[in-house]
């Protein structure tokens, strides 16, 4: 009998179809502890376990973004989802649609986690709290434009100081988009730069209604605000993250208006009191200085002012006399020193030696002059002798005795008839001029 063998892929597909067709596995409610937890940027993969078993869990990014708390290793949770298999590995797992902590509400767990995180980051620190201005001129309010909160704040401020301007920055105070709107309006108040105080708030409600004021984006916006913030969210028993981060918490919107504004009559009374105190202080200071002035006028120095500088005049005269004596003494010493230097200089003066050297130089100069004259005379005698000897040897002297110089057409000196031929032009140089001639006949003779 032949058997049909399945592939592993075919078997896993068959098992997956069985899981998908089982109606009891389409919606499963499960309780267990989170295991192998490591938060990923997109989809989440971890395990759920109890004391005896474990199952793999998958939560897609869309479903995970809806939970309000941060899962942690070992946390006990309530989950819903469907059970199926992953074909590639053949492993069955639960695909989660929702998850919340077991024993406490989902939002409360998220509130506790965010509170712990922000407290560790220092957002609740008293050192960061800003004092409220004593005399504000403009107050910004971030709340719903249709609720009773803005009316209660305006009424409270106007009763205390009608000169203070209250400006509404409308924002949604519940719903998914409320947190982002509130944070944006807080930023707008700071960008305006013309407000002294900022109030954020809304009326009472459930934790779901108040949740926008528990969002981290609102907490960070309050912490970054340069304008002091009063938080008035819910009733006195409600405690939101915004209340903890704000500089001041008010239990009601009316109390927020009271905290933000002084009573005008009280301020005017304080001004009158301060003015009276300032007048009294000025009068006291003026009287004190007048008394001191009278005492100074009666002083010995002002009655006889010339005696104030008598001692200084005498001391000046003494100093001038000492200065004169010191100058004369110093001058005498310097004159004596100068005379001594002159005598010393004279004893070592080079003048006698210079005179001797000058006389010696004159003698040398006379000797040099006489030597030069004698040398010139001897040179002239030798030159004349040489000129006469040279004159006797000069070709011109010979030519005057009847000799001449013969040159050919190329101005070469003719020394022999062998250099010539009949008809050749010649130039004959005499002592007193030249003659051009032509060779007619050549008669050579033997020279011994």
From TrEMBL:
Family annotation (Pfam families): Exonuc_VII_L, tRNA_anti_2
Catalytic activity: Exonucleolytic cleavage in either 5'- to 3'- or 3'- to 5'-direction to yield nucleoside 5'-phosphates
Residue stretches making up the OB-fold nucleic acid binding domain: 6-100
Entry's EC annotation: 3.1.11.6
CDD domains reported for this sequence: ExoVII_LU_OBF (cd04489)
Broad class of where this protein is predominantly found: cytoplasm
Location of this chain's protein in the cell: Cytoplasm
Family per record: Belongs to the XseA family.
UniProt-listed PANTHER family: EXODEOXYRIBONUCLEASE 7 LARGE SUBUNIT (PTHR30008)
Function: Bidirectionally degrades single-stranded DNA into large acid-insoluble oligonucleotides, which are then degraded further into small acid-soluble oligonucleotides.
Protein name: Exodeoxyribonuclease 7 large subunit
The organism of origin for this protein: Fructilactobacillus florum 8D
């Amino acid at each position: 009998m032949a058997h049909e063998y399945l592939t592993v892929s075919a078997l896993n597909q068959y098992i997956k179809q069985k899981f998908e067709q089982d109606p009891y596995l389409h919606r499963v409610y499960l309780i267990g502890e989170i295991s192998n937890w490591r938060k990923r940027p997109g989809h989440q993969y971890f395990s759920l376990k109890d004391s005896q078993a474990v199952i793999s869990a998958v939560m897609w990014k869309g479903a995970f973004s809806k939970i309000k708390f941060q899962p942690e290793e070992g946390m006990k949770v309530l989950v819903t989802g469907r059970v199926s298999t992953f074909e590639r590995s053949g492993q069955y797992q639960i695909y989660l649609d929702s998850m919340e902590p077991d024993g406490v509400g989902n939002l409360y767990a998220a509130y506790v986690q965010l509170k712990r995180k922000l407290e560790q980051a220092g957002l609740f620190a008293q050192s960061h709290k800003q004092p409220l201005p004593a005399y504000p001129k403009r107050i910004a309010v971030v709340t719903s434009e249709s609720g009773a909160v803005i009316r209660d704040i305006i009424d409270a401020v106007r009763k205390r100081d009608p000169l203070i301007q209250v400006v509404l920055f409308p924002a949604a105070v519940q719903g998914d988009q409320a947190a982002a709107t509130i944070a944006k309006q807080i930023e707008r108040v700071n960008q305006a730069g013309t407000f002294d105080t900022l109030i954020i708030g809304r009326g009472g409600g459930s934790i779901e209604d108040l949740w926008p004021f528990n969002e981290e984006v609102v907490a960070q916006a309050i912490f970054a605000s340069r304008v002091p913030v009063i938080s008035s969210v819910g009733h006195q028993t409600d405690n939101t993250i915004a209340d903890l981060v704000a500089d001041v918490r008010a239990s009601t919107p009316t109390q927020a208006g009271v905290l933000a504004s002084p009573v005008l009559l009280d301020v005017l009374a304080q001004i009158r009191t301060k003015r009276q105190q300032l007048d009294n202080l000025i009068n006291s200071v003026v009287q004190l200085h007048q008394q001191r002035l009278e005492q100074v006028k009666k002083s010995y120095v002002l009655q006889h002012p010339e005696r104030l500088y008598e001692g200084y005049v005498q001391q000046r005269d003494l100093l001038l006399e000492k200065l004169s004596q010191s100058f004369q003494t110093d001058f005498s010493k310097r004159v004596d020193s100068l005379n001594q230097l002159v005598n010393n200089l004279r004893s070592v003066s080079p003048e006698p030696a210079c005179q001797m050297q000058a006389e010696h130089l004159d003698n040398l100069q006379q000797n040099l002059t006489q030597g030069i004259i004698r040398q010139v005379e001897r040179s002239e005698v030798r030159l004349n002798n040489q000129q006469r000897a040279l004159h006797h040897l000069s070709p011109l002297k010979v030519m005057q005795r009847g000799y001449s110089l013969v040159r050919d057409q190329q101005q070469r000196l003719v020394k022999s008839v062998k250099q010539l031929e009949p008809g050749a032009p010649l130039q004959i140089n005499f002592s007193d001029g030249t003659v051009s001639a032509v060779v007619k006949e050549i008669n050579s003779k033997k020279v011994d």
